[in-house]
Amino acid sequence: MHALKYRSALGAVEALAELWPSAPSSPQVWLPVPLYPTRLRHRGHNQSLLIAQALARRTAVPVWSNALLRLWDTPSQTQLTRDQRRRNLSDAFALAPEVAVRGLHVGLVDDVLTTGATLAELSALLRRHGAASVQAWVLARTPAPHD
C-alpha cells in the first residue's frame, strides 16, 4: 500500500483488488475519496480512484471519479490522533453540484482505514444528499493512533 500511495507502484492495484472478496451486494456506483488538486499533481495519481477503477472492472459498476470534491488541502493525517483527524476533515468535502446521489447505494472507496474519520465525513455528506446507503470499501486497515 505504501508503495502504491507514495512511490507510484501502480501495478499493485490489480493484485490488491484481486484479494477483495465478492460483496453480497454491489453498490450502484463507486465513489473514490478525492485528493486536493495540488496533492494529486504532486503524487501523480489518486490511489483511491485507481482502486475504484479496478473494482469497476471486476463488478461492472461505474466509477464517478469527479463526484466528490476536496475543498482544501488538509494537512496529512498520518501523525494525527482520532480527534485531530475528525477536526482536520470537518467540512473538507463537498458533492459536485451536478451530481445526484439521492436513492443510490454508494460504494465509497479508500486505500487505508485508520480511524475512519475520512469515511465518516464522506458518508455523512452522502447521506445528507440522500444516498440510500453508503458502503465503505478499503484495502487495508492500520492500527488506530493513540488518542
TrEMBL record:
Pfam families listed in its UniProt record: Pribosyltran (PF00156)
Domain of life: Bacteria
Xref: InterPro entries: ComF/GntX_DNA_util-trans, PRTase-like, PRTase_dom
Regions crossing the membrane: none
Family annotation (SUPFAM superfamilies): PRTase-like
Domain Phosphoribosyltransferase per the UniProt entry, residue ranges: 96-144
Residue ranges that the Swiss-Prot or TrEMBL entry lists as coiled coil: none
Family according to the record: Belongs to the ComF/GntX family.
Protein name as annotated: ComF family protein
Native organism: Inhella inkyongensis
